[in-house]
Amino acid sequence: MTVPLGESIRQSFERRILSGELAPGSRLPTEQEIMAEFGCSRMTVSKALSALTTAGLIERRKRAGTFVVRPRVHAMVLEVPDLAAQVAARGQAYRFRLHRRNEEMVQDGHLAGQRALHLGGTHFADGEPLAIEDRLVSLAAVPAIADADLAAESPGTWLLHHVPWTEADTRIFATGANPAEAEALGLNPGAPCLCIERRTWRGDEPITTVRQLFVASGYELVAHFGPGGAS
Amino acid sequence: MTVPLGESIRQSFERRILSGELAPGSRLPTEQEIMAEFGCSRMTVSKALSALTTAGLIERRKRAGTFVVRPRVHAMVLEVPDLAAQVAARGQAYRFRLHRRNEEMVQDGHLAGQRALHLGGTHFADGEPLAIEDRLVSLAAVPAIADADLAAESPGTWLLHHVPWTEADTRIFATGANPAEAEALGLNPGAPCLCIERRTWRGDEPITTVRQLFVASGYELVAHFGPGGAS
DNA sequence: GCGACAATTATGTATAGACATTATTGCGAA
DNA sequence: TTCGCAATAATGTCTATACATAATTGTCGC
């Protein structure tokens, strides 16, 4: 038995649901009936249904039975890899240049009232500016960053390797570069750019806020939704 | 016992990991030790650890034990709600105007070699153009769209309510509006726009391809990552 | 010393049974 | 009719046990 029985039960119902054989809102067989169909114990059925529940495909209601959920909003998986790795994966030379680094008391936003390290820099791919970023890192949450060598490694890469986070919000929108930004990116003012603003936390504790402005022609985000969840 | 024992075990280890008490790469107690700590059976411990495994917090290796995973790439959940619903949620009046509808044989791309319905239109929020879209819908996969009333409802909304899909790819990038696009959106040529290109499938069968161009000031995408997965 | 093989130890999966929980259903009384 | 309560049928959780599986560890032979 290469594939576990519980897993094959899960797959069977996943297939029936995704194919439309089991329509949204329709009732699945009872656990007793599924036991009989697959010739296994109720615990095994229950575990398979629990997995489908956490995957969001079905809903279990006591006394009433188990139902296929009706489709809601699309939730897609957005991969946000490390920028240095992503540039390297395209076969380009990656470089980061830091042009601002100072400690300050943050007045507003996500890190308001905390001492933070304020970092600014430019990401280059093959010597061409790809993006500029402006970042605040909480010194309370990440004291070690005060001693980090951020000239060699971008702050994002350093944080990714040194600081685990548990929660993040990202806003993605298009905007025109203002004169200073255009200058830094080698564009004309008003040129289209992709802007990504991200705030991260570990538990309730804010870690960092970053605003990255990408040259439109040099960057795109890719999101995927598929049966496996991620792929 | 309001909270199930297995769940409290799961929470206990989640807390210890997120707080850093259990560092990435470190070994958890064996299932036997956890049994003793919580005074329960091994199945209950195993179920709690299974949940943490699917949540991606720990890794279980036979013979070796259970370990806290090291942080990897960021995978965030991108909410892609229906545009009409999203505009309505902001308290604005939503309208869609269809200005192209014809059947054609698709030459290239995702739907190459299929007969498809080619649709073009504009999304308005409070009477102002918000986005233009250009869409191909496979007539083989979705024959019913030939009879749909797409003047009242946007093609995206119609598809969302009538056609389940199982797989989708999305590209997100910034671009400048070309003269025709700028005209349709009431912008100057070259003005920054957010472009979303999406291809969807049901199983192996392509359903639709769409390119949506948003006025930069009117739209942003929001992605989230958190312990709950979605929130 | 060093490689191959066996023993050990840990997780992976499954069964069978028990009791808890809870929403529905139906019946009886006001 | 309608309100409320009890019976019921379904899922939720847990125990105790068994065997499978796989990687590390130790040992034996060379």
How is the secondary structure organized here?
Two copies of one chain form a homodimer.
Chain A: H1 5-18, H2 31-38, H3 42-54, E1 58-61, E2 65-68, E3 74-80, H4 83-89, E4 94-105, E5 115-125, E6 128-138, H5 155-162, E7 167-176, H6 179-185, E8 192-202, E9 205-215, E10 221-225
Antiparallel strand pairs in A: 1-2, 3-10, 4-5, 5-6, 6-9, 7-8, 8-9
Chain A binds a DNA duplex (30 and 30 nucleotides) through residues 1, 4-6, 30-32, 40-44, 46-47, 49-50, 60-66.
**Major β-sheet profile of chain A:** 6 strands, antiparallel
Uncertain runs of chain A are none
Biggest sheet of chain A: strands side by side, in what order? 4-5-6-9-8-7
What is the level-2 CATH architecture name of the largest domain in chain A?
3-Layer(aba) Sandwich
Mean pLDDT level of chain A: 86
Measured by residues with Cβ under 8 Å of the partner chain's Cβ, the largest interface is: A-B, 51 and 49 residues
Report the principal-axis shape of chain A.
elongated
The strand count of chain A comes to: 10
Question: Radius of gyration of chain A from the CA trace?
Answer: 24 Å
- CATH C-level class of the largest domain in chain A: Alpha Beta
Give the strand content of chain A.
Answer: 35-45%
| Oligomeric state as shown | homodimer
What's the end-to-end separation of chain A, in Å?
Answer: 25 Å
Tally of separate helices of chain A: 6
CATH superfamily label of the largest domain in chain A: Chorismate lyase-like
How much helix is in the residues of chain A?
A: 10-25%
Strand and helix order of chain A: HHHEEEHEEEHEHEEE
How many domains of chain A, as an integer?
Answer: 2
- The CATH topology of the largest domain in chain A is given as Chorismate lyase
